[in-house]
TrEMBL record:
A GO BP annotation: L-serine biosynthetic process
Domain D-isomer specific 2-hydroxyacid dehydrogenase NAD-binding: 105-284
Signal peptide boundaries: none
Protein origin, superkingdom: Bacteria
Name of the protein this chain belongs to: Phosphoglycerate dehydrogenase
Annotated source species: Formimonas warabiya
Domain D-isomer specific 2-hydroxyacid dehydrogenase catalytic: 5-307
Family according to the record: Belongs to the D-isomer specific 2-hydroxyacid dehydrogenase family.
Length: 307
């Protein structure tokens, strides 16, 4: 019987699949020190981005044959080193596309219509519509950075909302742009024409800090910016400056730099204290449907790899 350690949240449907043929240790709150001490006993490891799986951990996992991620991103794993040790890595691209795309639209509407702030103030018995003069989504220019599975789904929904859709992605062919009715632009062109910009790219050397002061200066005065991928794609100081100056009307993010484990404390940052910055705790994909799909797919992939 193979041994599998699960070091982050995993839905019951995935755990049940794993337990059919394996011994499973489900410990989503395990410390790094304990993981380092125990990993030598396990054939497979499943973990999300909240638990970095670096060279030190992989090196101590002398029995490891597979690493699974019940999500899309694998930037928390030292992929090159793992593969050099013949360890297979499995993620679940596509399972959360609808969830994240829907959440993106929700953030977009919230920014333009002040829903969160209006709810908070009204529950404090402040009833005054004049504080919440908003903007329509229809007929606005939407710029999508990254036209993969999630970006494409956002484009389709935005078209239904009568938005003018632009996108940039050097790795997607022109047919895909046409399929989702998005005009292909360079990043610089997109930033200049968009009223609302939403980011859906993986974290790589190329995308790290891809939106900084230079790129923000290209954006329209009063533009809205959304980040639904990884915190590190934004220069947070430059974003805070743009909010303080009013160059950006508002920013929404589902991710930040230095995300803690669930229940952990955030690292203090200027951006978190900046007015018109709306943030949620990385819940874009956190729906029952998406997480059930992710848990099932990663569990099945791990079982197959251990045969």
């Amino acid at each position: 019987m193979k041994k599998i350690i699960v070091v982050s949240d995993l839905r019951d449907v995935g755990l049940e699949i794993l337990k059919l043929e394996n011994q499973v240790n489900y410990c989503p709150e395990i410390t790094r020190e304990d993981l380092l001490a125990q990993i030598c006993d396990y054939d497979a490891l499943i973990g999300r981005s909240v638990c970095p799986i670096d060279k030190e951990i992989i090196k101590k996992g002398v029995k490891l044959k597979a690493i699974g991620v019940p999500a899309v991103g694998v930037n928390h794993i030292d992929v090159d080193y793992a593969q050099s040790q013949n360890i297979k890595i499995f993620n679940v691209p596509g399972v959360n596309s609808d969830s994240v795309a829907e959440f993106t639209i929700g953030h977009m509407v919230n920014l333009c219509r002040h829903i969160g702030k209006a709810t908070f103030d009204t529950k404090k018995k402040i009833w005054d519509k004049n504080f919440y003069f908003g903007r329509e989504i229809a007929n606005k220019n939407l710029g999508i950075i990254g036209l993969g599975r999630i970006g494409s789904r956002v484009a389709r929904i935005a078209n239904a909302m009568k938005m003018n859709v632009y996108a940039t992605d050097p790795y997607i062919d022109l047919d895909k742009f046409k399929e989702v009715n998005a005009e292909k632009l360079t990043l610089e062109e997109l930033l200049a024409v968009s009223d609302i910009i939403t980011m859906h790219v993986p974290l790589t050397q190329e995308t790290n800090n891809m939106i900084s002061k230079l790129q923000i200066n290209l954006m329209r005065q009063g533009a809205y910016l959304l980040n639904l991928c990884r915190g590190e794609v934004l220069d947070e100081e430059a974003v805070a400056d743009a909010l303080d100056s009013g160059h950006l009307a508002a920013v929404a993010a589902d991710v930040i730099i230095g995300e803690p484990r669930p229940g952990g404390k955030l690292i203090a940052s200027r951006l978190l204290q900046t007015e018109n910055f709306m943030v949620t705790p990385h819940i874009g994909a956190w729906t029952m449907e998406a997480q059930d799909r992710a848990a099932s797919m990663v569990a099945e992939a791990i079982i197959e790899a251990l045969k």
